[in-house]
């Protein structure tokens, strides 16, 4: 006659109560995290267009992009505030990646093929320096140079009359010495 198992010491399929509790705990954590992700996605704390805009700014401030556009030749100290001035020049304007519409228009020209890693500039997004433009209801990325820290502070607005829903700090590649306070 086979030995009988203690019904108190095992749960279904031969698992101990501790194993069953571990499984239940894991399932609760998984379901809870899925619910939190769905909540944060739908509650407006994530905006795809603003995330794409941040990628555009990050790409533009890449050291290789700045070197190929002649930024460090024009501005040897290469401070973040110099980058704002540089963006107003023809060389600086060439740093902006194309919008999806511009990319489609030039898609049949092989030498203008886009690197798959390069982001496209969102069409429904405005990039402004220093302050949000409250008169324009479009999504906005405000970029603020911080020479003391050698970074750019970015703020992402879905509605320019409200607080930003995203903030980022992007390091700026520079050979300049830190500014003494």
Percent of residues in helical segments?
25-40%
Strand order of the largest sheet: 1-2-3-4
User: Which structural class is indicated by helix and strand composition?
Assistant: alpha+beta
Low-confidence stretches: 35-43
What integer value in Å does the Rg equal?
A: 26 Å
Number-wise, the strands total 4
Strand content: 5-15%
Largest sheet: 4 strands, mixed
How far from one another are the termini?
86 Å
Overall pLDDT: 79
Number of helices: 7
- Order of secondary-structure elements: HHHHHHHEEEE
Taken from the alpha-carbon principal axes, the silhouette is: elongated
Descriptive terms for the model:
181 residues; 4-stranded mixed beta sheet; 7 helices; 14% strand
What does this entry look like structurally?
By secondary structure, the protein is an alpha+beta fold. It has a domain at 48-171. 37% of the residues lie in helices and 14% in strands. The protein contains seven helices and four strands, in the order αααααααββββ. It has helices spanning 17-42, 48-60, 63-68, 71-74, 80-87, 90-93, 100-105; strands spanning 125-129, 139-146, 151-157, 166-171. A four-stranded mixed β-sheet has the order 1-2-3-4. The longest helix has 26 residues, at 17-42. The radius of gyration is 26 Å and the shape is elongated. The termini are far apart. The model is unreliable at 35-43 (pLDDT under 50).
């Amino acid at each position: 006659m086979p030995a009988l198992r203690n019904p108190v010491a095992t749960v279904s399929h031969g698992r101990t109560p501790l194993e069953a509790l571990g499984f239940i705990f894991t399932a609760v954590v998984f379901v809870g995290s899925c619910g939190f992700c769905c909540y944060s996605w739908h509650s407006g704390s994530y905006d795809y267009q603003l995330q794409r805009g941040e990628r555009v700014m990050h790409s533009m401030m890449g050291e290789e992009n700045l070197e190929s556009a002649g930024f460090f030749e024009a501005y040897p100290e290469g401070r973040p505030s110099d980058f704002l001035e540089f963006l107003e020049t023809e060389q600086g304007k060439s740093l902006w990646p194309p919008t999806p519409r511009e990319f489609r228009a030039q898609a049949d020209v092989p030498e203008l093929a886009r690197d798959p890693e390069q982001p496209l500039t969102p069409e429904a997004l405005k990039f402004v320096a220093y302050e949000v433009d409250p008169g324009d209801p479009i999504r906005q990325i405000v970029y603020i140079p911080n020479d003391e820290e050698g970074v750019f502070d970015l703020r992402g607005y879905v509605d320019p009359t409200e607080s930003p829903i995203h903030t980022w700090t992007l390091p700026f590649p520079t050979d300049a010495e830190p500014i003494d306070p």
